[in-house]
Amino acid sequence: MNEATGKITVLGLGSGGMKILNALAALPAAVKLNLLAVDTDVNTLGASKLPESAQLLADVQWLHGHGCGGDCQKGQRAIARERDTIETRITGSSYLIVTGGLGGGLATGGVEAVASLCSKLKMPTIYMMTVPFSWEGDAKRQKADAAAAELLMSSDVLLLLPNDLLFSVLLPETPAAEAFKLADTEMARAIIATAEMLGNRNMIGADYADLQTLFKERKCYCALGVGVASLAEGANAGQLAVDRTLAAPLLGGIGKLKEADAVMFSVLGGPELSIAAVQQTMQAAVKCLPENCELALGVNTSPEYAGCVLSSMLAIKYNDRAKIKPRRKTPALMEVEQTAAPADASGGGEPKQLVFELVNTLLSRGIFANSPQVSYNGEDLDVPTFQRREVQIDQGD
Amino acid sequence: MFKHTDIVTAVEIGSSKICAVTGEVAEDEPLRVIDFAEEPVDGEVVKGEIADMDRVLEKLIAVLDRADTSKMLNKSRIFAMNISGCNIASRQESAALFVDGKVSAADLQSAADAIEQKTLSGNLEKFNIADSYYVLDDVRRVRNPIDQNARKFELFSHVIFGDANRINNFRTVFIDAGFEEPPSLIFSGLADLYAVVSQEEREHGALLVDVGRGTTEYIAIFNDGVFASGVIPVGFDHLANDLSIGLNLPLDVCRSVFTGALLQQPSAVSSGMVETSGRRIPLASFEKIIDLRLRELFTIVRNGFPDQSALRNLAAGGILTGGGALFPRTAEIFHSMFELPVRIGAPYDHEQDLGFLADPRYSSLWGSLCYAAELLKIANLNRKRGLFTSIFGALGNMGDSARRTITDLKDSIKL
């Protein structure tokens, strides 16, 4: 039987995903999870505190343990080449949570390949991806946006958590290193809260189906907060848990919460969780929410949470209240992309030659060039869908 | 003792093949296939429409010769041809009339005639009209209005129409092949209903999608009435074209992705890389291109329903047919898009094994043959008893452009 059987697997992609998994492994509740960190950089994996069984060095044959260097295509290929191994490691999981930072190489390029694999395995998957800080530059942000738009089409539940939310609660003098670390820790806590929500469904369900309903084909940005309070802290543990949730850095404060279009709020407690505590927690949470937002509530109990109350709040702000529309192509756009030439299969020590490839972004109708044009919503259906959606395709070696 | 037999022939001029099948109809016996012939199409038909009349004519003559129809001249024959094309569209129309007491077959026919006589703008021609449902006294929706007591009777019909010139191309090429009368035309999606959808599925509601090489037809049926249909000018050639452009591969290699097992090779599945044309291409690249196109295709089908809630009524789920249904990913994506159970529909006959015809690629052809057999049955009834002369005057001219195809005779014909 696979290690993952029946468990929730958390798959961390790239160095960002690795850091989140490191933070996750430090939390006691992580023992219930099956962790798998995938990276192409042997140094990042070497510095990880995760056991070796939870690490996968991807595409060692071609990348020789070096990172992707921010190249999405290398990331996509690396994950494609490890498809079989990843499939073996995640098969049997009840759910899969994929995490990592968009805007880099492996996670940005590889997450789509993971989505394709999960789709084939028909595995319910939640993508919890962080979006770079705005000061990390426009290029990174655009890469992250493009990857998110692509992933949105093939995923049911995509949570995009902007790192910028941290600024709303952190003091300006907070060291940058601490800000990054905090982002990872908060993400890890958010993963635990999500896993608990999926794993414990014995009372009022707020589960994967609710997430699907809230997220399917809708582009949005999320904020996620988790708070825990012990019953020993006083009679109002529910209120305390909600207060701590509201103070969580990745929630962005009550101001951001008031802008949410939809909120998913769940409470998890021990078997002794009383109806009064549930009512108190719910009332405390609901009064902080905007009036007309869509609301999904969940209440569950688990023996592991005896003596405490955990509340988690997922606030969703849709980019557009309507469902996402396909991005429109601007034919005039021509971009030059620098790609690394594929390494020699023999793995020789020759330095890789950099080639400059003109990416063909001109729309082509191929064999339909001479047939009458048929438009749908202003789009020429004879032009490949991937070209109209500006999706990059790896043509292989 | 000799039994009287008649001959029916179905012809298909599609984007992937021109084919004909001839069947023999005898009283109280199942429709028996006598002959079949097929010619591949190589650009003569594009997106369901004839692009080269001469070459289509050559191939049609070759196919009809081999399908042996010329030897049956002494027998009564009915020809049916299924058609598709991006010019074909549909809409719901209704006609109401006040009745005194019971609704009669003549009332039904009057309402049907009223719908048939409504003119379309431009150069459009109605060629199939299918009953959707009936409403009595503004409130009662019934399956069969005949003999029901009511003061007002309304017929809601599904009208399928297209550009008259492009439709006439199909008739012309058939007449040029040496026949005096044009064939009875049937929309491919409607023909599929005859071929692959069971009576139970028609009643409970089903969405049938025929994914062909040049076009995709869809048709939705509920409570034995058609309520939505359409043609999307996207087929599996678009997928092959997308792969060819996206992966820089020859078109024949891309087409083989759907007919062969290129993507199912154990080495491709285990390594995530597909080796073809001397290159190693990530499997994910193939999947990405295919998924994007299929998702877009099914999104357009879904948007074709003016009332999205109607999809929830389709308890029998989805039925995929046509050559594209043989590609496993089609059903998977259909299922994820519509959240309906889905099956692959192939021609069937309760009373016999259809052999090689029991293939989703021949759904429309087999459906057209069944349609021709139904028309023949009506024509024979008309001839023997003269009962339906008023209702089916049009049957004297099988090439009549507009014909009610579904529930003209509730008692004698079932779709």
CATH architecture of the largest domain in chain A: 3-Layer(aba) Sandwich
Q: Outline of chain A, from the CA principal axes?
A: globular
The CATH first-level class of the domain at 5-86 and 164-195 and 349-396 in chain B comes to Alpha Beta
Q: In total, how many domains does the architecture of chain A comprise?
A: 3
> What would you call the structural class of chain A?
alpha/beta
Number of strands of chain A: 14
Radius of gyration of chain A: 22 Å
Within CATH, the superfamily of the largest domain in chain A carries the name: Tubulin/FtsZ, GTPase domain
| Mean pLDDT rating of chain A | 77
The major β-sheet of chain B equals: 5 strands, mixed
> What is the chain-wise order of helices and strands of chain B?
EEEEEHEEHEEEHEHHEEEHHHEEHEHEH
Topology pattern of chain A, helix = H, strand = E? EHEHEHHHEHEHEHHEHHEHEEEEEEH
Contiguous uncertain segments of 5+ residues of chain A: 321-361
Strand order of the largest sheet of chain B: 3-2-1-6-11
- The CATH level-2 architecture of the domain at 5-86 and 164-195 and 349-396 in chain B is identified as 2-Layer Sandwich
Q: Calculate the terminal CA-CA distance of chain B, rounded to whole Å.
A: 31 Å
Percent helix range of chain B = 25-40%
Regions of chain B with pLDDT < 50 over 5+ consecutive residues?
A: 385-415
Residue-averaged pLDDT of chain B, rounded?
A: 84
Write a structural description.
The complex is a heterodimer of chains A (397) and B (415). The longest helix of chain A has 24 residues, at 176-199. Chain A is of the alpha/beta class and 397 residues long. Chain A is 34% helix and 22% strand. In chain A, helix 6 packs parallel to helix 7. The radius of gyration of chain A is 22 Å and the shape is globular. Chain A binds chain B through residues 76-77, 79-84, 112-113, 116, 119-120, 153-154, 364-368, 371-372, 374, 376, 381-382, 384-387, 389, 391, 393-397, and chain B through 46-47, 51, 86, 232-234, 237-238, 241-242, 244-248, 251, 269-274, 279-285, 287-289, 291-293, 295-296, 300, 332, 336.
